[in-house]
Amino acid sequence: KPDVVHIVAKSPRAVLDAKYKLASRAGGYPTPDLYQMHAYCTILGLPRGYLVYAGSRSEGARPGTHRIARTHIDVVTWPLDVTTTPRELLVQVDELAAAAVAPAPVATIPA
Q: What pTM does this model have?
């Protein structure tokens, strides 16, 4: 089950799952993580979910969005730099929280 489900008025509004792995040298993350989040989004009826990778931003990774083929679901990979100061880490978490609760763009399912 996901680490965080943000609920407003008894409805899920955001889903986040923490991962403790680094991005590959090419900046990618394991495909099974993306499909796990896809499952969470499908069950919760959400168009977007967040995979939060602790430590990857210090390795040069940046947030990225991945559309799951033939769906309207986006999975956002969000790296955090846990080697930074506590204050800076809180800034990163605030940015993540703001992004997670922002309205998702309207998506269309590709043919």
A: 0.87
- Helix extents (H) in the chain: 31-44, 86-101
* CA-closest candidate to residue 92, choices 103, 101, 81: 81
Cα–Cα distance measured from residue 100 to residue 111, given in angstroms and rounded to the nearest whole number: 27
With a CB cutoff of 8 Å and minimum separation 6, the contacts of 99 are 50, 63, 76, 78
For residue 67, what is the DSSP state?
Answer: E
- 43-88 pLDDT, tens per residue? 999 999 999 998 767 667 788 899 988 999 999 999 898 889 999 9
